[in-house]
Amino acid sequence: xxxxxxxxxxxxxxxxxxxxxxxxxxxxxxxxxxxxxxxxxxxxxxxxxxxxxxxxxxxxxxxxxxxxxxxxxxxxxxxxxxxxxxxxxxxxxxxxxxxxxxxxxxxxxxxxxxxxxxxxxxxxxxxxxxxxxxxxxxxxxxxxxxxxxxxxxxxxxxxxxxxxxxxxxxxxxxxxxxxxxxxxxxxxxxxxxxxxxxxxxxxxxxxxxxxxxxxxxxxxxxxxxxxxxxxxxxxxxxxxxxxxxxxxxxxxxxxxxxxxxxxxxxxxxxxxxxxxxxxxxxxxxxxxxxxxxxxxxxxxxxxxxxxxxxxxxxxxxxxxxxxxxxxxxxxxxxxxxxxxxxxxxxxxxxxxxxxxxxxxxxxxxxxxxxxxxxxxxxxxxxxxxxxxxxxxxxxxxxxxxxxxxxxxxxxxxxxxxxxxxxxxxxxxxxxxxxxxxxxxxxxxxxxxxxxxxxxxxxxxxxxxxxxxxxxxxxxxxxxxxxxxxxxxxxxxxxxxxxxxxxxxxxxxxxxxxxxxxxxxxxxxxxxxxxxxxxxxxxxxxxxxxxxxxxxxxxxxxxxxxxxxxxxxxxxxxxxxxxxxxxxxxxxxxxxxxxxxxxxxxxxxxxxxxxxxxxxxxxxxxxxxxxxxxxxxxxxxxxxxxxxxxxxxxxxxxxxxxxxxxxxxxxxxxxxxxxxxxxxxxxxxxxxxxxxxxxxxxxxxxxx
Length: 703
Description:
Elements: H1 8-19, E1 29-33, E2 44-51, E3 70-74, E4 82-85, E5 91-97, E6 103-110, E7 123-128, E8 136-144, E9 149-150, E10 155-160, E11 176-179, E12 185-191, E13 194-202, E14 217-220, E15 232-234, E16 239-240, E17 245-247, H2 259-269, E18 274-282, E19 290-297, E20 302-309, E21 312-317, H3 338-356, E22 361-369, H4 378-387, H5 389-393, H6 401-404, E23 413-423, E24 430-438, H7 458-468, E25 473-479, E26 493-498, E27 504-510, E28 513-520, H8 538-549, H9 552-555, E29 560-566, E30 578-584, E31 589-595, E32 601-606, E33 615-616, E34 628-634, E35 638-645, E36 651-660, E37 663-669, E38 682-690, E39 693-701
Parallel strand pairs: 8-16, 8-17
Antiparallel strand pairs: 1-2, 2-5, 3-6, 4-5, 6-7, 8-9, 8-12, 10-11, 10-13, 13-14, 13-15, 18-19, 18-22, 19-20, 20-21, 22-23, 23-24, 25-26, 25-29, 26-27, 27-28, 29-30, 30-31, 31-32, 33-34, 34-37, 35-36, 35-38, 38-39
C-alpha cells in the first residue's frame, strides 16, 4: 500500500538519533533490565541501564535539556517516582509505573561518560507487561547510492502509517529501530501487525551528526520511485523481507526549484492549499538539499508540511490552529527565489560575515509575517517543535531567532529572513547577523517601517498600567530583543513598572499595540527607582551614542545594539536617569552612558576590562546557611543559565536563565528549590552555561 504521508517526526527523530552519537566514542550500553524481548514485566519495575563507563550526570542533550540521558519511549512512560545512578555512576535506574498488557519500546540516543565520550550508537530495548511480544518483523538491505556500496552502520527506523487516521491525524511515534550490519542488512523485530514507513540515515562524515548539507546520506523507502514514501504492511505476525532501499547525499537546489513537484502534491492533499512558509539551510548560492514547505487549507483551517530532501518528498500533519492565527497568510506567487535572496543578503553584510566566520551556518526563511508570528512565546516554540520544523531546519537552542529578527509586524508582509550564525569553541564564541529582505521587491530591512521611538508607545503602556497595575510607576524602558536601529528606533519597547509593594509589571508595545503584558520579578530589574518625566527620546540619545561609538556598527558586521533607560546605571550618579547603550559583537563591545536629561555622554567602557573567558567562582560562604552568593563572568553576550543539581543529577533550581551582555555577575541562592521549598543539607552541584562552554563547581548546605 502506498501513502503520501510522511510524519515529520520520522525525519526529526532520525536526525536526533545521530545528533548525540559520536561514532568514534567508546561509551556503550552493557546490559539493560528488563532485557530486550522480555515478557511479563511487572507494572511497577525498576528500569536499569548499565554502561561501560561512569556517566556524566551534568551532561545535557538537545532533545532533553533537563536530564543527563536522551531517550524516548513508546508509549510514553510517566515520570519515575525515583531515579538516580549507582555509586560508581555506571548504572542508571528509575522506578517507573507501567500500564498492564502493554508493549514498550525504549530508545536511548544520548549519554556521556565522565571522560567525555559520547554513546557510540543508539540502544533499543523492547519489553511487555503482557504475556507475549509481537512476532512481526521488517527486514531488508540499505544501499548507499552515492558510493554504490552497502550502507553499513546506518540507522533504520520504522513509524506507523495509519491511513484511517487521516492526513491531519495525530502522530503515533517511533515503533522500532536498528542499525545495519556490515552488509547493510537490517531486521526490526517485535513489530505488531499494521502499516509502517521506513527511513534510514548514515553519518558518512563521522562527526556524530546527520547533516545532509555536509555530505551525510539519508533515504526513505519508496518502492515505485515516485518520490513519496511507501508503506509496508505487517500482518499475521509474519516477517516482511525485501524492504530494500537506498540512501544518498541529497542534491542542493533553490527553494522554488521544488515547486513544480510540490504544488500538485499539495493540491492533491487539499485542493485549496496555499503556500505560507518556506525555509531551509542556505549553502553556496542560496541552495539547500532540504526544504520545508508549509501549506494552509482555508476550508479545513489547518496546516500541513511538505518536506523535500533532495528528490524525495514527504507530507506531515502539522497542527490545527483555527482561523485567523499563525501560518495562514499565503506567500505571493512571485516571491523571490533563494538564490536571488542569498545574493542580496551577501551584498548586505553576509559576505563580510562569512569572511570573518568561514564555518558559519546560514538559514533562510520566507513567510508573510504578522504581529503574532515568531513571538518567541513558549507555546509557539512548542508548536514549532512539535511540527518538526524546529529540529530540522534550525540548530537546537536557536529556535526561530531568524524569523524574530523581522520584528512583529502589524500587517502581513512577505519577508525573507536570512540568518547567519557562527558558533566557536573559544572567544569570541559566537557571531550572528540577520538580513531582512522583502520577499517580492528585494528591499532590504522593510520592517523598519514598523519601528518606533521609545516615547511613541509610552501613553499606551501607562494606560494599561492604570487599569491592570494601579499605583505602578515606570522604572525601566528597554529596546526589543531584536535590537536598536542606528536611528534610535526598535521593533517594540518593553516598559517595566514597580508598585510600592515591590511587585513588577512589564508591557511590550509596538506601534500602539500591546503585544504582551504580565507580572515579572524584582530580580529582572536594573533599577527600582521611579524614572522622572522629561527624559529625552531614544533617537536623540542614540545620535549621541552613535557619534561616541566611533563607527562600531561599521567596524563589526555582526554588531547588535540594545539600550536601557533607568536610574542607578551610573555608579557615580545613581539618581540620574541614564540611557545605557550596549554595543555588542563577537569580537568587541562598548558601553556608553547618556544622561537622559541633557543628552550628554557621561560614561564609556570598552571591552578592555571585560572577562576574556567564562568563569565560575566558588560560592561564598561555603558551607552556607541559609543563603550563599555565586559570582560568574561571561566573555560574550548571549543566553546564560545557572543551574543547581543534587548529587543524583536532578535539577533543583534554575537561578539564572536570561540574555547577558559580557561582564561580571552575582546571584544569590536561598537554599530553596523551584517551588520555594527549603532543600535538605548536603552537597549540591552548580553549573553556569553560556555560549561556547560551561563551568561546574560544588557547594555544601548545612541546615
